[in-house]
């Protein structure tokens, strides 16, 4: 069964695209809002949730594309759907001229609502940790 594409757009209060880019594309930046521990090695992001020394869950995402100050696209290493990936893209709203974060992710139809809730929570943490 193929996964469904989920596309989300979040307005941000970020003034500088470069600062936002650091939060989206670096291990240190991602640790502030996406996962508890992130390490990048040889084009692979290792993301850990929970206590790294105790109970935790680690997933690995291959970096497919990274365009400075624009987007990062990744695919989970255990992904079976050849079309599935997840991407975070910085865009400027044509209406407000403010920066927005566009997220694309994939999930089975039954899991789409949960995936949206997950991204909503991630963005809430991004707002809290950065003020964006």
What report would you give on this structure?
Helix content is 25%, strand content 41%. The chain has 132 residues and is α+β, with helices and mostly antiparallel strands. It has a domain of 60 residues: Alpha-D-Glucose-1,6-Bisphosphate, Chain A, domain 4, CATH 3.30.530.20. A 7-stranded antiparallel sheet has the order 1-7-6-5-4-3-2. A hairpin with a 2-residue loop joins strand 2 and strand 3. The longest helix has 19 residues. The protein is globular. It starts with a strand and ends with a helix. The mean pLDDT is 94.
Shape: globular
Largest sheet: 7 strands, antiparallel
- Main CATH class of the domain at 36-95: Alpha Beta
- Walk across the major sheet and give the strand order: 1-7-6-5-4-3-2
CATH architect. name of the domain at 36-95: 2-Layer Sandwich
- The CATH topology of the domain at 36-95, please? Alpha-D-Glucose-1,6-Bisphosphate, Chain A, domain 4
Number of strands: 7
Proportion of residues in β-strands: 35-45%
Mean pLDDT: 94
């Amino acid at each position: 069964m193929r996964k469904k594409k989920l596309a989300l757009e979040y307005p941000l209060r970020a003034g500088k695209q470069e600062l936002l880019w650091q939060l989206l594309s670096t291990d240190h930046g991602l640790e502030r809002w996406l996962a508890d521990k992130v390490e990048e090695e040889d084009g692979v992001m290792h993301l850990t949730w929970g206590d790294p020394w105790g109970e935790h869950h680690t997933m690995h995402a291959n970096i497919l594309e990274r365009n400075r100050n624009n987007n990062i696209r990744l695919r989970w290493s255990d992904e079976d759907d050849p079309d599935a990936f997840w991407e975070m893209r910085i865009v400027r709203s044509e209406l407000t001229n403010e920066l927005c974060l566009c997220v694309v992710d994939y999930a089975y139809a039954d899991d789409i609502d949960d995936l949206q809730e997950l991204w909503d929570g991630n963005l809430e943490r991004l707002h809290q940790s950065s003020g964006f």
